[in-house]
Design brief:
By secondary structure, the protein is α/β, with parallel strands linked by helices. It folds into 2 domains: about 120 residues, Arc Repressor Mutant, subunit A (Orthogonal Bundle), CATH 1.10.10; about 300 residues, Alpha-Beta Barrel (TIM Barrel). The protein is built from 18 helices and 19 strands. The strands form 5 sheets. Strands 9-10-8-7-6-5-4-1-13 form a 9-stranded mixed β-sheet, sandwiched between helices. The chain has a 3-stranded antiparallel β-sheet with strand order 14-15-16. Strands 17-19-18 form a 3-stranded antiparallel β-sheet. Strand 9 and strand 10 form a beta hairpin. The protein starts with 5 loop residues before the first helix and ends in an 11-residue tail after the last helix.
Length: about 475
């Protein structure tokens, strides 16, 4: 399929609406404060005593909230500081949180996936990263062949730091680039020369990292389709193993840093559509596989292979090749998933530290999934990861009659069938090659919360 053909631009305009990214279902905005640390403790106990203790490995996410400087587009939970000594107490409290987990799960749980995010994980010094990884390895067993990744700000590392990351067992790097254009970088307060990124990526390849990801954002101030074309050409020359292309959501009323962005400098809706359409064409033309929802990978990358083989999974960090598993979120604001529950830690350091000083998990909200949540999660994740739903598999797993349970949803899908995004037959739902670019719109049909709440401004655009 030629993604540059007019039908793509027409569909992009038609689906220029907001919607969830479905790193979970229900989505995090549905979490409630009624879910407490006691509920989280109970979920951990069930994991330890149930079949999941033997069957499901673990994924770990560690949130490092500190950044040296503010990127104006950022909507992450971060703390801007040049005082690196603030990392010392934070690591101490992370250790307490790990200890609470091992009290309930025991030492030696097998981990197949680790992700350090932020903020800026490379805010930590080499010694602090060694301390953190030592703490985790003393309490968990890291399985060979797992995915061990870290988000990297190119401005905070050099070649010697890459050596440290390799030594500590990280095998995947994600570079935050956003845009190579100097005017755009200045407008968002993130200046990093392209030469610096190219040198670091080349050095990372020489050190044998399994996969290198680059993040890009379209819709930033000072961007135009022509300027973004130049960035696309540079990224294709860089040829990372994976690419993530995100739409900038300008929500200054929710995210204070975005108030520093001049609205008049933002590209028009038509310009954003053109940037997305030209990006799709450029990446597919350069040989990348569209994995799904913002993500591209070279055919030889594990993510593209997993998609071909029907082994894609999705968690709070996005697409993954690792089997579906429980996730422990460590650190301020981190989100976790244990069994049929989701949980989120306190969002401020003061509250996070206070809970741990009292010997409690710092969980402040979450959700215990209902039976309906579980059925719909299975359908939505099957669409997002495999691009299909087989009616029989859902019926056998959840003891429902699909056509009755989802009668209104199947009726709503007819419009997407007419637009060529999905096909329907007696056996199931299949997302078409064109439909993969709009898979969030397909998944939204089955979101019960959106059916009763049409206020979607809190979400990013679905394409």
């Amino acid at each position: 399929m030629n993604v540059a053909e007019p039908v793509i631009e027409d569909l992009i305009r038609r689906f220029d609406v907001s919607g969830p990214r479905y790193t979970s279902y229900p989505t995090a905005d549905r979490f409630v404060e009624a879910f407490s640390a006691d509920d989280y403790t109970q979920a951990l106990k069930l994991r330890r005593t149930g079949a999941a203790a033997l069957a499901l490995p673990l994924s770990l996410y560690v949130h490092i909230p500190f950044c040296e400087s503010l990127c104006y587009y950022c909507a992450c939970n971060k703390i801007i500081t040049k005082h690196h000594d603030r990392a010392t107490p934070y690591l101490r409290y992370l250790s307490r949180e790990v200890d609470l987990h091992t009290e309930h799960l025991g030492v030696g749980q097998i981990v197949t996936q680790l992700h350090l995010g932020g903020g800026t994980p490379t805010f930590l010094s080499d010694d602090e990263l060694r301390e953190l990884m030592g703490m985790l390895r003393r309490n968990f067993v890291f399985a060979p062949g797992g995915e061990y990744s870290i988000e990297v700000d190119p401005r905070t590392i050099d070649v010697s730091r890459l050596d440290t990351l390799a030594e500590l067992g990280f095998n995947r790097l994600s570079f935050g680039v956003q845009d190579f254009d100097p005017a755009v970088q200045k407008a968002v307060h993130r200046v990093q020369p392209a030469e610096q990124v190219f040198a670091l990526v080349e050095a990372a390849r020489q050190r044998g990292f399994d996969s290198i990801n680059v993040d890009l954002i379209y819709g930033l101030p000072q961007q135009s389709p022509e300027s973004f074309d130049r960035t696309l050409a540079q990224v294709i020359e860089l040829r990372p193993d994976r690419l993530a292309l995100y739409a900038y959501a300008h929500l200054p009323e929710r995210f204070k840093p975005q108030r520093r962005i001049a609205t008049v400098e933002l590209p028009s809706a038509a310009a954003k559509v053109a940037m997305l359409s030209r990006s799709l064409s450029a990446f597919i033309g350069a040989g990348y596989v569209y994995v799904g929802m913002d993500h591209f990978a070279l055919p030889t990358d594990a993510l593209a292979i997993a998609k071909r083989q029907g082994r894609l999974h999705r968690n709070f960090q996005g697409y993954s090749t690792q089997p579906d598993c429980d996730l422990i979120g460590l650190g301020v604001s981190s989100i976790g998933r244990i069994g049929a529950t989701y949980s989120q830690n306190a969002k401020t350091l003061e509250e996070y530290y206070d809970y741990l000083d009292q010997g409690h998990f710092p969980v402040v909200r979450g959700l215990a999934l209902s039976r309906d949540d579980l059925v719909r999660r299975a359908v939505i994740m099957s669409l997002m990861c495999q691009g299909e739903v087989l009616f029989e598999s859902i019926e056998l797993a959840y003891l429902v009659e699909f056509h009755c349970y989802f009668a209104s949803e199947l009726e709503a899908l007819q419009k997407l069938v007419e637009q060529g995004l999905v096909t329907l037959d007696d056996s199931g739902i299949q997302v078409t090659p064109m439909g993969w670019y709009f898979v969030r719109a397909v998944a939204m049909v089955f979101d019960r919360y959106l059916q009763t709440d049409r206020t979607r401004a809190r979400f990013s655009k679905i394409i």
